[in-house]
């Protein structure tokens, strides 16, 4: 049941119409002197707070967003460009309005804590079961026929890749491996070029090093 809220007051500038919550001699927006006039706002009704179930689902969604943002921040590291607007968990969507949950060093991350079609749940369960059976990593490839093939960005048409779904644990493992490989390449910079090339061939799985 909604309830009435008391009337409140604000002070509106007669020159620029900017409102302030308290009276001052100068308008903060346009600098007008003694231009603020008191306005009494009519009572409004609170928005329905929703059921306990709805609140529980909202909390679960927010906890899920914070959890994945924190995990990505821990494994991938923060992006310095977003350091000042990110929360302690790495979330930025609720602050910046750019419509993603988190930005880490190498990823933009969006978390969806929503129900998906039953066929997708079944497929995800099956591929995880088989991955454990064969001691492999699970990969669910999704290519919806109704998804666009490309998208526009700054006047350019960019091919939209298909969805490859892996577990978050495997994703974090790959990030750590990428970081270790990058560190190894930086160390190899001090070695002779021909030796570095041989090592990179082996790392890429294309052959063995020479004696």
Quick rundown:
With about 210 residues, this protein is an alpha+beta fold. It has five helices and nine strands.
List the helices and strands and how they pair.
Layout lengths: L7 E6 L5 E2 L15 E6 L10 H25 L16 H4 L5 E2 L4 E2 L8 H17 L5 E3 L7 E4 L2 E4 L3 E3 L2 H21 L4 H11 L8
Antiparallel strand pairs: 1-2, 1-3, 4-5, 6-9, 7-8
| SSE pattern | EEEHHEEHEEEEHH
DSSP helix fraction? 25-40%
Widest β-sheet, arrangement of strands? 2-1-3
**Count the helices. How many?**
5
Strand content: 15-25%
Quaternary state of this entry equals single chain
Description:
With 211 residues, the chain is of the alpha+beta class. It has 4 domains: 34 residues; 64 residues, no CATH class; 52 residues, no CATH class; 27 residues, no CATH class. The chain has 5 helices and 9 strands. It has a 3-stranded antiparallel β-sheet, with no helix packed on it. α1 packs parallel to α4. The termini are far apart.
């Amino acid at each position: 049941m909604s309830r009435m809220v008391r009337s409140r007051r604000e002070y509106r500038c007669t020159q620029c119409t900017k409102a302030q919550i308290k009276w001052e001699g100068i308008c903060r927006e346009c600098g007008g002197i003694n231009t603020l006039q008191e306005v009494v706002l009519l009572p409004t009704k609170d928005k329905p707070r929703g059921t306990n179930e709805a609140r529980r689902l909202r909390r679960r969604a927010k906890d899920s967003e914070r959890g994945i943002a924190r995990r990505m921040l821990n494994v991938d590291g923060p992006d310095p460009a977003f350091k000042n607007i990110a929360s302690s968990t790495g979330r930025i969507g609720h602050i910046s309005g750019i419509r993603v949950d988190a930005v880490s060093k190498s990823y933009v991350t969006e978390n969806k804590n929503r129900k998906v079609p039953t066929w997708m749940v079944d497929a995800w369960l099956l591929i995880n079961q088989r991955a454990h059976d064969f001691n492999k990593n699970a990969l669910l490839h999704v290519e919806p026929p109704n998804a666009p093939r490309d998208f526009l960005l700054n006047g350019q048409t960019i091919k939209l890749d298909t969805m490859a779904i892996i577990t978050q644990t495997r994703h974090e493992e790959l990030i750590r491996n990428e970081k270790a490989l990058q560190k190894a390449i930086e160390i190899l910079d001090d070695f002779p070029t021909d030796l570095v090339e041989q090592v990179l061939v082996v790392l890429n799985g294309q052959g063995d090093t020479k004696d």
